[in-house]
C-alpha cells in the first residue's frame, strides 16, 4: 500500500543541508557525559555530613567492642566467683566486677552482643515484612489494600509495650524469640511508609511501561517498586535498630529481658538499680552510656542517610 | 533617554561543589520603553539565569561576575539585598512559567495580587484590594471582585496565569520579564495570554523581555530577538530580519528543526546532532562548533566576536550562513496513499468501535459514585498496517486515555477494540501477555518512563525477558542492535537513566518500545518534553524506525504540527469525542470542524508576517469540565457558529470526502450528500 524509500543517515542529511564540512559528525544521539553514579553522589553527600560520619564511627567502635573485644580482652564470664563480687574499678578490672564477680567490661561486651543482635535481627525482620506488605498493599489497591491497611491500623492501635510484655512472658526469652516479639510490632510503620511510596510509584510511567510489556504483579513488585522504595527502607531500618535497642532495654529494665546467664545492657541496668544505694555506680552508668551512644549514633546515621539519598533522588 | 533595561557585558556564574557553571557570558541586551524583545534559547542556554540575574534572584552559589544591569539608567549590579527588594516587583517584575507552583496555595488570590502594592507603596488593605480588582480586570479576569476570595486551586490554568501577570503588574513596573509565560498552557490558552501581554505592553508602555524556547511565540510579538546558545548571545537582529536573513548556523538550524503545518512531511527535519556543551567546561572557541556542520579548525580554537555589518544585526560566527535552509533532504518518499479508501468490510489492523471509558468519581462515607469523568466517549477509528494515525487535542480531551485503551492497559466500559480481528481487552493471563507483544507504548516524560534503578541494558532487555523471547545471549545481541539503531553508543548499556539527557532517554524509550517488534506503537507526546534541536532528532528517528520496521503507530500530541509531520491520518479530539478525522491535508487545508479550524489558527508560527496577520484570538474561553460535558455538541460553548440545534442534538460524523469526516451541524466545508455513498450512519461505521 505504502512504499518507503529508506532514508540516509540523518547526520549526513544535516551535513548536506548545511553545506557540508570537514568535521566528523558526533554520534547521532550525542556524546555521553561522564556523570557520577547516583550512589557515589549519595556517598559524597553522606560523607560531607560530619555528624553522620561520627555516628558511623561510634557504631563501628561498638560493633568491634562487642564482637571482637572478647577475643582481645579475655575475662572469665562463665564461672561465678562470689569472692570477686562488687569490686570497684581497679587495675585488674578497669570497670570493676558485678554481683557474680564477672568483669564489668566483659559484661558490657556480652550485653552489647545481644543488644546489637536483637536490634539488627528485629529491624531486619520488620523491614522485610513491612516492605513486602506495604508494596503488595499499595500495588493491589482496592479492597485488598483496604483490608491490609486496616490490619496495620489495628496493630498500631494496640499499646506496644503492653503487648510485647504479654508476649515476652509467654515465650521463652532467647535472642531469636525476643527479636521476633519486637519485630512483630515494628513492621507496621515501615509497611505504611512503603505503601505510600508505592502509591506514587505505581502511577509513574516506567511502571505503566512495564505493564504495557505484560509484566506480572510479582515482577512489578520486585523489579520496580521495591528497588525504588529502597531508600525509604534503608533510612527506616536504621531508625528501627535504634528503636528496637531501646525497646529491648525497656523490656529488660521491667524484668522481661534475657534470662541469666544471657545479658543485655538493659538487664545490666535493671540489676544495677538494686545496688544504687550502695554506691556501685560502675554497674549502672557504663551500660547506660553504651545504650545512649549506640541509639544516638544510629539516629545520626539514619538522618545522614535520609539526606544523602534524598539528594540523589532530587538530581534525578 | 536611557533605555528601560540595559544589560552590558553581563557574566553570571553558578558555583557547584567542585565546579563552576558559566551560565551567562558577556551578554548585552537592551530594551526600550514599550518594546518587547525576545530571548530564545534551549534549556540550559542561560536564558532564565539572565532574567534571574536582573532581579538578583540567582540560585544558591550563583553570582554576577561582571558587567552591568541598568534600569532607566540606575545600576542594579552591586545593590544590597534591601535595595534590590525595592526594585523587585516595583521597577522590574517577573512572570514565571508554572503558575501552579508560583502562586501560594494557602492565600486568596486577592491578597496575593495586593501584596506588591502593600509592600512597595504602603497602601492599606482596602486601597490595595481596590488596586487588585483594577489589575485583575485589566488582565481579563471575569468578575474580578467576586474572584478576590478564591484560592489558586479554584482557578483554571489560564486564569492562574492571568493572576500571575496581575501580580507582576500591580506596581506598574518599567520592565517585565516573562520567563516562558505560556509553556505550561494549551495552545488555545497560550494565544489568549500572548495577546494579553501584547495588549498590556501597548497600554502600559512597559519594556518586556519575552524568554522562550519557541520561535513561534516570539515571531509575531517582538521587535527584536536575541538567540542564546550555551550562555552566549550568538545572534541578535530585528525580528523580521532574523527570520528571513539569519546569519548564524544555529539560528538557521533551529528554525528548520521545527515541523510546520505547511511543511512537507516526506522531507527530513533539519536536526542538530549531539548535545549542547557542558557549561562547567565550556569549549575553547565557538561553543556551537562541536555541532556545527560548517565548523573549521579556527572555530574550535578561536571564539568569534559578536559583530555584523550594521549595528542592528549582530552575529558571532566565523562562517556565517546566508538566510534560511533552502534545500531539504527527502527522508521518506511516500509513493502512493491511494489505498486510503479501504472498503468498509476490509480488515483493519486495529479497529476501535464506539469505545467508551469513564472514570468514576466517588465521594462520601460509603464511597458512592457521584459522577464520572467522561474521558473517552463513543470513539470509532481504525488503523491499517504501517500507517500512522495522529491524535490531537488540548490537555484533558481524553487522548492519553484513548492511548492507554489501545495498548490494553485500560479496559473500555463499552465498545470493542480489535487487533487483527481479535478483541484485546477480554484476553486474560498468557494470551493477554502475548497480545501485548504487538502493542507497545512510548511515554511523554523521558524522566519518568525509565526506571531510575535499572541500567539501560536491563531496561531494554525487560520486554524480552517478560515475553520470554530468546536466550540471554540472543537478548543481549538484540539489545545491542537496537541501541545502535537509535543512535546511542554501546557503552550506554552499563549506565543508569539519570546519566542521559532528555533526548537520549527518549531514544532509549523508543528502543524499548521497538525491541519487541510490535505491530502498533502508541507514542504519547513523544517529543513535547524535549528541546527544539533534540525534538527533530527524535522525530526523524521515529519516522525512520517506523518505516524500517513497518510498524503502525498512533501518535498523540497537543501539537498539530508534530502530528501532521508524523501521521498519515489525523483525528482531532475534543472533550472525549473525536470531532474530525482526515488526512493531514484534509485537516490542514480543508478543516470542516470549527474547533479544528480554530486550533490551526492559534498555533504560533515561526514566521513574523503570518503571526502579525492573525487578528482573532482563536478560541475563547476554556475547556468545560469532562464531569459534565455540554449537551449536544460538546464544543458549542466555545464555538462561534453555535446555534440552538447544537445544544439539543449531537452532530453525527459526516463524510466530506472518502478520507475526511467531521461531526458538526454547521461545518466549514460542504459535506458529501447523504445517501450518495450510504447514509451518514454507514459512513460512521466505515471509519
Short description:
The complex is a heterodimer of chains A (316) and B (687). In chain A, 70% of the residues lie in helices and 0% in strands.
Write the layout of secondary structure elements.
The complex is a heterodimer of chains A (316) and B (687).
Chain A: H1 10-17, H2 38-47, H3 50-72, H4 104-140, H5 142-157, H6 160-170, H7 175-186, H8 188-201, H9 205-213, H10 217-253, H11 265-273, H12 281-314
Chain B: E1 5-15, E2 20-31, E3 36-40, H1 47-55, E4 62-71, E5 74-75, H2 81-87, E6 92-95, H3 99-102, H4 109-120, H5 125-138, H6 144-147, H7 157-169, E7 175-179, H8 187-204, E8 207-212, H9 215-219, E9 224-229, E10 232-238, H10 239-244, H11 249-256, H12 297-301, E11 307-310, E12 313-315, E13 350-363, E14 368-383, E15 388-392, H13 399-406, E16 414-419, E17 422-423, H14 429-435, E18 439-442, H15 456-467, H16 472-485, H17 502-514, E19 520-524, H18 532-549, E20 552-557, H19 560-566, E21 569-574, E22 577-583, H20 584-589, H21 594-602, H22 608-613, H23 644-648, E23 653-657, E24 660-663, H24 680-686
Parallel strand pairs in B: 3-8, 3-9, 6-7, 7-8, 15-20, 15-21, 18-19, 19-20
Antiparallel strand pairs in B: 1-2, 1-4, 4-5, 9-10, 10-12, 11-12, 13-14, 13-16, 16-17, 21-22, 22-24, 23-24
Helix pairs in contact in B: 4-5, 4-7, 5-7, 7-8, 15-17, 16-17, 17-18
Question: What would you say this structure looks like, in words?
Answer:
- The complex is a heterodimer of chains A (316) and B (687).
- Chain A is mostly helical and 316 residues long.
- Chain A is built from twelve helices and no strands.
- Chain A is 70% helix and 0% strand.
- In chain A, helix 6 runs antiparallel to helix 7, helix 7 packs across helix 10 and helix 10 packs antiparallel against helix 12.
- Chain A is elongated and about 75 Å long.
- In chain B, the strands form four sheets. An eight-stranded mixed β-sheet of chain B has the order 6-7-8-3-9-10-12-11, with helices on both faces.
- The C terminus of chain B is likely disordered.
- By secondary structure, chain B is of the alpha/beta class.
- Chain B is built from 24 helices and 24 strands.
- In chain B, 52% of the residues are buried.
- Chain B is globular, with a radius of gyration of 26 Å.
- Helices cover 32% and strands 23% of the residues of chain B.
- Classes of the chains: A mainly alpha (316), B alpha/beta (687).
- At the A-B interface, helix 1, helix 9 and helix 10 of A face helix 11, helix 14, strand 18, helix 15 and helix 17 of B.
